[in-house]
Amino acid sequence: MALNKAKVFTITSVKGGVGKTTTLLNLAGVCSNLGKRVLIIDLDLYSGDIASLLNIDYNNDIYNLYEDMNNNKFTNLDDYVTNYNENIKVLPAPKDPRFARKISSKILNLILYKASMKFDVILIDTNHILTDINLFALDFSDQILYIINNDSMNLKNMKTIVSILNDMNKNNYKIILNESNNRDKSYYNKYDIKNIINKNVNYIIPYTFYIKNIDKYIIEGKILTLEDSIIKRHREALKIHNLIISDILKESKVD
Predict the structure, then answer these.
(1) What's the rounded Cα separation, in Å, for the pair 248 and 122?
(2) Structure confidence by residue, pLDDT tens digits, 144-155
(3) CB within 8 A of 93, min separation 6: which ones?
(4) How far is 56 from 204, CA to CA, in rounded Å?
(5) Fewest CB within 10 angstroms: 58, 63, 121, 245, which?
């Protein structure tokens, strides 16, 4: 009987400040609500902040896991991941960013393989720089989610990435326009954006999902899609998050 393996989704961007990590956490919350076992891997190795955003204390991070695997000291993945809730676990970025450059894609491949045997969904957070590690994560992923906002430089960068992905014959990616990231930026409509980036926008997180007191939730380490007050006030916007997960799990044939 074939083993069930996790489906791997990388959430990335072409420019900072678009709400990438917040979107990843919200999608993790949706998966948790579905009862999926979720692992969040923070591959923003130099400046990852997922552990801080979730207010989790941890002893081990991805560098400790890398070192132990590299030196044949690895025993169990559970020793390196930290619980957020009963469904969501986190593998944090290195506490000391000086260790980030030591992590190789060869060991990352082994980490992802080990993790894929224990979880239903793996969500990888990356920065927007095309490092070897980030490129490896994109190659390993079943689906890639690009988060963009309504900003001219962002759209120009996305156009370049679309061209590169076309040259690589990669089509396992979706583009998410995050209008809630900055409600004041609405220079282009959906038709304009399609013409600029030469690609359809697959999903739009509407400007109505702007959370005025979001700092309160961040300070408390909350995931928005797990909060009853947010769910009640933003049902329509949260339908988009649910649709994104439903679509990519269906396309990736997760049972």
Answers:
(1) 12
(2) 999 999 999 999
(3) 42, 43, 44, 45, 46, 47, 48, 49, 50, 51, 61, 62, 100
(4) 30
(5) 58
Give the type of residue at 209.
Answer: F
Sequence-ordered list of residues with C-beta below 8 angstroms from that of 242, at least 6 positions apart, any chain: 30
What's the pLDDT tens digit per position in 158-217?
999 999 999 988 899 999 999 998 777 777 888 999 999 999 999 999 999 998 888 899
Encoded tokens for 72: 């044949």
With 0-12 CB in 10 A as exposed, 13-18 as middle and 19+ as buried, what is 250? exposed
Alpha-helical (H) ranges within 94-145 are 105-116, 132-140
Cβ contact 205:23 at 8 Å: yes
Tell me the C-alpha distance between 221 and 204, whole Å. 25
CB 144 within 8 A of CB 12: yes
Q: Are 158 and 150 in contact (CB under 8 A)?
A: no
Tell me the backbone φ, ψ of residue 148, rounded to 5 degrees.
-130, 165
Q: How far apart are CA 201 and CA 190, in angstroms?
A: 7
Q: In whole angstroms, how far apart are CA 114 and each of 77, 109, 122, 197?
A: 7, 9, 11, 36
Give residue for tokens 């044949």.
Answer: 72
Pairing between β-strand 38-42 and β-strand 88-91 as defined by DSSP bridges: parallel
